[in-house]
């Protein structure tokens, strides 16, 4: 089920976003560029995040479209990871963290009090900065998600799902003979691909990646980037990265964050070749950051 | 700018490296002093441990042997079972003392007079009739035959044979008189007196006679108490640690709880004994002197230890594992039970074993709830009156008989053995399951 931003305004009970809301948001002046996506999967409007008294994200609005990779760049501490973690409510685990504004997945308010985060996280998967496989076997790492959600009916189906997921993550050929060995014994790049396989095993709709290559060497990075490009066919991907080259290589749209503000959003080519805002230009040309 | 090493460059004639070199000697000397102090502290500590161990082992070693006297016993049918019924009741009530005394008299036919005969009889332990009774009850066909039997010697004889009572002190100051010494020597010449491995020590309960006293009762009491303590404290402590560490909101109340758990760990154990007496025995009516009430009190005492260790173990599980599990959509409880708890388990078990070792060595609170009672029978369950190893040590250390000195040290050896075993298990467990990230 995919919904464009304009279609979201249905008369659904709690959690639905009204058309008026969206109109108001469209007029938001702060961000330069088009925050919307013609085929939006996730819609975020006026998102504020507070850690205690400190505001980490200020009125950020951004869409994540179907079959697109949105990259988020910006200097350290600008709030891009914080924003990413709002999208599947991973920030809930941080004490004192408060989120306001609208974040919707396929038209359903993610921060609705009645919404259960467990199915949300099954729909919005996450790959973390540091590869974090479970200290269990490779097979168990991938099979864990499907097993707790009851996605398969028997062992054969589960085996197939594990194989498909590992294949999609481009790891199958490397590990097919040692599925029973611990996932922590793999190399850094393999571990990260294992984490991606684990994420896609639960068939999410959106995948969030928080600097997935920052702990990897260039060869492993290249593999992951290739993988991201392939995954775009089936998933919406939001990726936070410190590498501008990476953002340029893998993403269709780029968002530049600065001190909690979303300064500029646009087509990746346009952002890197013709940034509109002074801050974006300074960052991209390496004047600070 | 000929000298980039100093901050003020050319203005300073002294190079930084000179200052470094000048201070090197002083710095190394300080390091050497520190190492020396550290090493002497370790050596001092080890020396005291060594002294303690050597003293205990030297004193306790003889307790693992027991002097026995071999005598040809004639199981006289006239004495044991004059009517020939062979009924258990008759056999158990027979006068076995006479059999042993007659056999001893036969060794020394020239002993005359009440005093001398009494002294001769005193060489045998008061446990001898029981020893013979058990033999006959087990095998009634012995009746009417003559058998060579090793009988337990009295503790004075035992101590003399082991050399704890020296020969060369004046007779008046010696518990074993000259005549008895002569008898012992005579028996020794005939090869009828010997030190044998002391099985009684491991199979018998408490006794007023040192040669009949054993640690089996205390060991079983300790075993039952510890089993219950583990059953009570481990689930409660792990549950409390898990809740406080992972689920409870971090606020003023949880801070107060945390401070108080740490306080509880420092409360003198006798206070827990008083609490147990007032609450468990007086209010809830739990039977006193039993492993059950002992375990309840020791649970209160070990809970803080295990909770603190378990929380540390949970803290050491990297947050990335929790994020990974939450990220694929595991519920908080699934995250804890599938991922965090298994990783924290070795640390929790280590804390539990250390808590258990503490409970095994605990004496004071158990004194308050009646586990100091003199109990001859070996406890057979959780509600039988019993005592525990450290209390048994306390009781024996308080006994005036010479034979109990070695028993005390031997019991300490057994207790230390168990404690070492438990701590070793904790270390091995930690080694085996320790994971590095």
Characterise this structure:
The complex is a heterodimer of chains A (289) and B (437). In chain A, helix 4 crosses helix 5. Chain A is globular. Chain A is α/β, with parallel strands linked by helices and 289 residues long. In chain A, strands 6-7-8-3-9-10 form a 6-stranded mixed β-sheet, with helices on both faces. Chain A contains 11 helices and 10 strands. By secondary structure, chain B is mainly α. Chain B has 2 domains: 131 residues, no CATH class; 218 residues, MetI-like fold. Chain B is built from 18 helices and 3 strands. Chain B has a 3-stranded antiparallel β-sheet with strand order 2-1-3. In chain B, helix 14 packs antiparallel against helix 15. Chain B is extended, with a radius of gyration of 32 Å. Chains A and B meet through helix 3, strand 6, helix 4 and helix 7 of A and helix 14 and helix 15 of B.
Please name the defining characteristics of this protein.
heterodimer, A: alpha/beta, 6-stranded mixed sheet, 4-stranded antiparallel sheet, 23% strand, B: mainly alpha, MetI-like fold, 3-stranded antiparallel sheet, 18 helices, 3 strands, 64% helix, extended, disordered N terminus
């Amino acid at each position: 089920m995919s919904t464009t931003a304009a279609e979201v305004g249905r008369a659904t009970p709690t959690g639905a976003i009204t058309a008026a809301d969206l109109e108001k948001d469209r007029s938001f002046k702060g961000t330069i560029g088009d925050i919307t996506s013609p085929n939006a999967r996730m819609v975020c409007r006026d998102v504020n995040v507070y850690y205690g008294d400190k505001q980490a994200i200020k009125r950020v609005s951004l869409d994540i479209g179907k079959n697109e990779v949105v990259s988020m760049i910006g200097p350290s501490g600008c709030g891009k990871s914080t924003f990413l973690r709002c999208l599947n409510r991973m920030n809930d685990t941080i004490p004192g963290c408060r989120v306001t504004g609208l974040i919707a997945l396929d038209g359903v308010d993610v921060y609705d009090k009645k919404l259960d985060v467990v199915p949300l996280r099954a729909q919005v998967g996450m790959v973390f900065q540091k590869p974090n496989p479970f200290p269990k076997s490779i097979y168990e790492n991938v099979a864990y998600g499907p097993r707790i959600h009851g996605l398969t009916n028997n062992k054969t189906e589960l085996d197939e799902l594990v194989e498909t997921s590992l294949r999609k993550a481009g790891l199958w050929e490397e590990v097919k003979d040692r599925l029973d060995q611990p996932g922590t014994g793999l190399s850094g790049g393999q571990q990260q691909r294992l984490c991606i396989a684990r994420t896609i095993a639960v068939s999410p709709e959106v995948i969030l990646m928080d600097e997935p290559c920052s702990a990897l060497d260039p060869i492993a990075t290249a593999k992951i980037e290739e993988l991201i490009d392939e995954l775009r066919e089936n998933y919406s991907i939001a990726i936070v990265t410190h590498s501008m080259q990476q953002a340029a290589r893998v993403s269709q749209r780029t968002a530049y964050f600065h001190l909690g503000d979303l300064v500029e959003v646009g087509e990746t080519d346009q952002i890197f070749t013709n940034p509109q805002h002074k801050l974006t230009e300074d960052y991209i040309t390496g004047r600070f950051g | 700018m000929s000298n980039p090493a100093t901050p003020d460059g050319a203005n300073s004639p002294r190079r930084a490296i000179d200052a470094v070199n000048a201070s090197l000697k002083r710095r190394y000397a300080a390091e050497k002093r520190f190492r020396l102090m550290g090493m002497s502290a370790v050596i001092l500590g080890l020396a005291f441990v060594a002294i303690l161990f050597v003293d205990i082992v030297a004193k306790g070693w003889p307790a693992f042997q027991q002097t026995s006297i071999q005598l040809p016993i004639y199981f006289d049918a006239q004495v044991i079972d004059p009517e020939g019924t062979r009924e258990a009741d008759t056999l158990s009530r027979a006068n076995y003392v006479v059999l042993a005394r007659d056999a001893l008299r036969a060794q020394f036919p020239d002993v005359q007079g009440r005093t001398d005969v009494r002294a001769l009889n005193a060489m045998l332990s008061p446990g001898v009739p029981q020893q013979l009774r058990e033999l006959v009850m087990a095998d009634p066909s012995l009746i009417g035959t003559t058998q060579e039997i090793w009988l337990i010697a009295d503790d004075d004889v035992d101590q003399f044979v082991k050399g704890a009572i020296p020969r060369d002190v004046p007779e008046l100051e010696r518990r074993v008189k000259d005549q008895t010494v002569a008898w012992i020597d005579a028996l020794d010449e005939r090869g009828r007196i010997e030190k044998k491995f002391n099985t009684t020590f491991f199979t018998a309960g408490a006794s007023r006679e040192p040669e009949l006293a054993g640690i089996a009762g205390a060991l079983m009491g300790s075993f039952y108490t510890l089993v219950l303590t583990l059953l009570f404290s481990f689930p409660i402590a792990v549950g409390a640690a898990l809740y406080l560490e992972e689920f409870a909101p971090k606020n003023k109340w949880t801070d107060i709880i945390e401070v108080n758990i740490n306080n509880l760990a420092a409360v003198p154990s006798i206070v827990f004994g008083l609490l147990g007496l007032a609450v468990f025995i007086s209010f809830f009516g739990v039977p006193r002197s039993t492993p059950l009430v002992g375990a309840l009190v020791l649970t209160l005492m070990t809970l803080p230890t295990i909770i603190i260790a378990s929380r540390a173990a949970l803290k050491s599980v990297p947050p990335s594992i929790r994020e990974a599990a939450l990220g694929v959509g595991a519920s908080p409880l699934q995250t804890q039970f599938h991922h965090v708890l298994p990783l924290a388990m070795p640390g929790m078990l280590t804390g539990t074993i250390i808590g258990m070792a503490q409970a095994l060595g605990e004496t004071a609170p158990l004194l308050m709830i009646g586990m100091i009672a003199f109990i001859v029978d070996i406890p057979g369950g959780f509600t039988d009156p019993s005592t525990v190893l450290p209390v048994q040590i306390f009781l024996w250390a308080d006994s005036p008989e010479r034979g109990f000195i070695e028993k005390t040290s031997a019991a300490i050896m057994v207790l230390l053995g168990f404690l070492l075993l438990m701590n070793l298990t904790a270390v091995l467990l930690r080694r085996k399951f320790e994971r590095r990230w």
